[in-house]
Amino acid sequence: MNLFRKLVLILILFLVGCSQPVEGQLEKAGLLLSAPIDDKGWNAKAYQGILNIQSKFGVQVFVKEDIKTETQIIEAVDEFSRNGVNLIFGHSHLYADYFMELKDKYPEMYFVSFNGEVDGDNITSLHFEGYAMGYFAGMLSSEMTSSNKIGVIAAFEFQPEVQGFKDGALYNKDNVEVFVEYVHNWVDETRAIDLFTEMEELGVDIYYPAGDGFHVAVIKEVKKSGLYAIGYVGDQIDLGETTVLTSTVQHVEKLYEFVAESLNNGTLSTGNKYFDFEDGVISLGTFSSEVPDDIRERIEKSIEVYIATGKLPHERED
Question: What is the DSSP letter of 127?
Answer without folding.
Answer: E
